Amino acid sequence: MFRKTFLPPVADLLAFEAAARHTSMSRAAEELHLTQSAVSRQIRQLEGQLGMALFHRVRQRVVLTDAGRVYASDVRAVLQQLSAATQKTMAWSDGAGLLNLAVLPTLGTRWLIPRLGDFAARYPDVTVNMAARSEPFDFSLVPLDAAIHFGAPHWAGAVCEYLMHEQVVPLCSPGYRAQHSITQLQDLARVVLLQQTTRPTQWADWLEQVGAAGVHALRGPRFEQFAMIAQAAVSGLGAALLPRFLVETEIASGALVELFPQALTSTDAYYLVYPESRAQAPLVRAFRDWVLGQCGGGLCYVLNS
Asked: Is the pTM of the predicted complex or chain greater than 0.70?
């Protein structure tokens, strides 16, 4: 429980944060549409409540004290949280629901978003917000209801629901395959292998699985996301290992072709993850059953039941 004694007026905090960011009272005043004297007065009030100076006044500039620097960082985080909470509440309407979901960037763009029309049709009063997350996080520290995660089914304080495995296959553009006459595994020794930063041994694992020798598996430019590698492959920059389901459109259009039929299936998989405390929340249950259905199993849960 917070104590009101320690809660300064929001206007004073806004003035302080702006002055700290700009190191200038006048520029803070311009941003807040106030006079410079009004900003100075609000900061003096805040310093009086704290019982310490937050700035050193140096000619026409203000420089944060050590205490002011720490306080500015904390205040900025609180103001951001307050802004996010206000936006979340403003997005709410009677009878509607709000689901805040963390997704892997490429999975969200190439697989989930194209399917969300079906979810919207089933639950027209539900708004799905998405944030990009590539690593596990603490649900108690962020305003998110669930996440789609790739890896092992381990997430502290959360339930992991299996969605699907992926089949990773070697692909390139038709032009690149023709240019380099790629017809057998050994031909990969003389082409560029596009690498993913977060899966540095993927080419090595695939080459070992198919029994290809004499190929330098770690060479080639590195990209952080599958979407980047897919575009690089389409653009003829090299051969890529990509999950087939993420590049269905490029394969269907002929922009990418599979070089060899052998696929790599890893022990990792995709999981829907949500905090244990939200396991019985109607929105989470509705999304859980819907996304399981999209992956080939499960029935959609009726939200009003």
From this structure: no
